[in-house]
């Protein structure tokens, strides 16, 4: 179903990712970063990003995808959990603010042992507000030396208690 035909009230279906989801997950990742963080340097080609998703993210993390529509359903978001670290939560730009990120975060929280941490670029104010609305607390700020983009980030934590 073309994005323009997706219902605004449609609930996402969240499921565990499979290797065949690599292309769709890559498309969400690239579109989301380009839209939400245009200030980031483009360090890798689309092909390199797809290879990383296929070889590192999907096999090395617990990954969930959010789907909308039927016959066929479209992957419109994904989240990747590595232990207690939420490494990725990305949505296609045209489906933001429809509860899809919250549904993915709920799946991740259900799989976590009661705590999560994550890093967000400091300039990504929409993501920071999202995590703060969901009970995450900023704990540490960094100058960007720990990420390949050299972009200042902030570490957030969440616990069940």
SS element count, helices:
4
Question: What letter string, H or E per element, gives the SSE order?
Answer: EHHEEEHEHEE
N-to-C CA distance: 41 Å
Radius of gyration: 15 Å
Mean pLDDT: 91
Offer a quick outline of the entry.
With 161 residues, the chain is α+β, with helices and mostly antiparallel strands.
What would your notes on this structure say?
This protein is α+β, with helices and mostly antiparallel strands and 161 residues long. Helix content is 32%, strand content 29%. It has helices at residues 22-36, 46-60, 100-111, 125-133; strands at residues 13-16, 62-68, 74-82, 85-91, 115-121, 137-142, 153-159. A 4-stranded antiparallel sheet has the order 1-2-3-4, with helices on both faces. Strands 5-7-6 form a 3-stranded antiparallel sheet, with helices on one face. A hairpin with a 2-residue loop joins strand 3 (74-82) and strand 4. Helix 1 (22-36) crosses helix 2 (46-60). Mean pLDDT is 91; it is low at 1-7.
Fold blueprint:
Elements: E1 13-16, H1 22-36, H2 46-60, E2 62-68, E3 74-82, E4 85-91, H3 100-111, E5 115-121, H4 125-133, E6 137-142, E7 153-159
Antiparallel strand pairs: 1-2, 2-3, 3-4, 5-7, 6-7
Helix pairs in contact: 1-2
Note the main attributes of this structure.
single chain; 161 residues; alpha+beta; four-stranded antiparallel β-sheet; disordered N terminus
